[in-house]
Specification:
This protein is mostly beta strands. The chain contains one helix and ten strands; from the N terminus they run H-E-E-E-E-E-E-E-E-E-E. The protein has one helix spanning 3-18, and strands at 57-72, 83-97, 113-125, 129-130, 134-142, 145-153, 160-168, 171-178, 182-192, 195-200. The protein has an eight-stranded antiparallel beta barrel with strand order 1-2-3-5-6-7-8-9.
Length: 201
């Protein structure tokens, strides 16, 4: 090999090694941390087996819905005509569950559990349209059956009193006793959209 060829190869190698943008080599800890200790030993003894457990879930239930039906009592009428009431409400309940994947089932409040109901009747009608009351109830629920007691207030005039609802959804009866106007009775037909948010315990 001639001296010119050797000189050209040496010059090419020097130029390539001087280019630092193609590869980076760590000057320390190469090729990395190597652990030479043997892995943990498993002898298959039944005494060492741990049964997996289900941590269960927390669940927050939301049930927005509509309620409506025939109603009477706020304004006395000489002919005994029956009016109507239409309202919206929200049922809220919290519970813990022993088993996960509650999202795979139809969400419902716990059997024998407590539920908070809040609602408003934007329409009462008996010969003319009027605003109905806002209310809040504490409910005891058993599947579709429930009993609730709370308070109701008419926002337009401040007339307030107690309210009780007994239901076997979608049907129910709601009774109010107001300080200024006395008793009101409503046949409650309820349509609810059950929704729940769950997370692991």
């Amino acid at each position: 090999m001639s001296r010119r060829v050797v000189a050209a190869l040496v010059a090419l190698g020097a130029t390539t090694s001087a280019c630092t943008g193609l590869r980076y080599t760590a000057p320390t800890n190469a090729p990395g941390v190597v652990v030479l200790a043997p892995p943990a030993r498993e002898d298959g003894s039944p005494d060492l087996y741990v049964e997996p457990t289900d941590p269960g879930e927390h669940e927050l239930y939301f049930g927005p819905g509509l309620v409506g039906g025939p109603a009477l009592g706020r304004h006395a009428t000489s002919d005994g005509s029956t009016g109507a009431e239409l309202g919206v409400y929200l049922r809220v309940a919290y519970q813990t569950r022993r088993h996960s994947h509650r999202r795979d089932d139809v969400p419902m409040p716990a059997v024998g559990g407590y539920v908070l109901n809040v609602g408003w009747s934007p329409l009462q009608y008996n010969r003319e349209a009027e605003l109905g009351p806002v209310w809040a109830e504490l409910e005891r629920a058993w599947f579709v059956a429930s009993v609730a007691v709370g308070v109701a207030v008419y926002p337009d005039d401040g007339n307030a009193g107690i309210q009780a609802t007994v239901a076997a959804k979608p049907y129910g009866v709601r009774v109010r006793y107001l300080a200024e106007t006395g008793f009101e009775v409503m046949g409650a037909f309820q349509v609810e959209l059950p929704t729940a948010f769950s997370w692991s315990r």
